[in-house]
Design goal:
alpha/beta; Rossmann fold; Domain 2, N(10)-formyltetrahydrofolate synthetase; Formyltetrahydrofolate synthetase, domain 3; twelve-stranded mixed β-sheet; 19 helices
Length: 556
Amino acid sequence: MVKSDIEIAQASAMKKITEIAAQAGISSEEIEPYGHYKAKVTFAALEKLKKNDDGKLILVTAINPTPAGEGKSTVTIGLGDALNQLGRKAMIALREPSLGPVMGIKGGAAGGGYAQVLPMEDINLHFTGDLHAITTANNAIAALLDNHIHQGNALNIDARRVIWKRVVDLNDRELRQIIAGLGSPINGVPREDGFDITVASEIMAVFCLATSIDNLKARLAKIVVAYTYDRKPVTVGDLKIAGAITVLLKDALKPNLVQTIEGTPAFVHGGPFANIAHGCNSVLATTAALKAADFTVTEAGFGADLGGEKFLDIKTRDLPKHPDAVVIVATVRALKMNGGVAKTALATEDVAALKAGFANLNRHIDNIQSFGLPVVVAINEFVTDTAAEIAALSELLTAKGVAFSLTQVWAKGGAGGLDLAEKVVAATETRSDFQYLYDLTDTIPEKIETIVTKIYGGASVTFTKKAKGQIAEFERNGWANLPICMAKTQYSFSDDQTLLGAPEGFEITIRELVPKLGAGFIVALTGDIMTMPGLPKQPAALNMDVDQAGNITGLF
């Protein structure tokens, strides 16, 4: 019987976190342990690491996700283990899971099989409390903002134009739109409000892009929370609370150090969604890994059209370093689904559907190469893959002229990714000519149109009346020279999740724009994308339990 991910994780022997830190050149005095197997890395340690040269950076991204599964985090972890097996000093930098997907439909984000980060249960649940700190910081801003309005409103804030929402790190559709402040004058000023999920909060984005406590405080001060009656923006700095909010985040800002099943050091820190935020782990964690290792393997959320593009156009501006190679993860199953096969029929051989679905992978390859970066495709193997399907995919990739590798890291850990590791090392030694997709001096519509036409394959962009008004307002406020963070369905290149493969000629509608000045980007909301997801009919939480000894079951 094949063991589940949690059974494999629970049967794995972990090293003490002091040993893992030592592998990364960090002493026991430079970590703050949370038990025996996880720790925060101190700011003093981060400062000491700065004297080291940067290692090579490998970005792992993927085709558009499907219910068939792609295994991007699993490949990321397995690749890190494989590099260490080859004698290369490697570290991994991942995002923290959100309780929304963990309790919902997607499950955790700690890898799978024998390519996992440990302790798996802690990482997928409360971990070191970072997401709770971010939730509290976000809601403290909301409480202090509403209190300012209630206590005389010296800033002349228009309660109808408060744009700052409260958050909770769960999928809760009931909270998308609410009325707050009901009851009587002592309960505040009644107004429409709503909740986002924590990982879509600007606090999360700011947290992940900050380079120090001072930089975090400066970014927090820039966050726009509301507008006055004469349409002037009101910021956290105007409320004079940036220092207080930084206090709530100062410990969370320290990167979390854990390990893989094979003992590879891993930073797991920060967790913005890639479909409604920028989808990358913290700059501090990635920077620390680059200084502590010869190879850093990191991932960006969902497909290369979302997390991958945002890593390259947003995160690298603050890192600042571009990847030395990019790995695109694909599976035969997911490509067949993109070729029109139903999830229930994926175990049946279908070479024709595979070839049709290859269009999705092909576009992602072209997109990453357009940034001037070398690409390696990781074919994450499943037991249902047939020899004919593997041969067909190999033939397509060979004709494309792209390096590729069959990986079995779920079943074999690092040993199942040795060929991938060798090809990635070779790719990092080739010349790259990195270039951003657009110039920051381009207008807001130009930047959005560039993403839609060059990355998504769309024909045009339609802006609603509201979005057009916001563009004009942002230009008046001097916010036009910021990168764009697209909020779009992860399942399709388009804003229609049913259009799989590589659709062309479609139109994308921008319904609303949100200024995220602290994060340093503008969010463009497309189609019907929501910033507070809902739970499925059969949430993953229904399978979870814990016994008298505290052992968890049903987590994946």
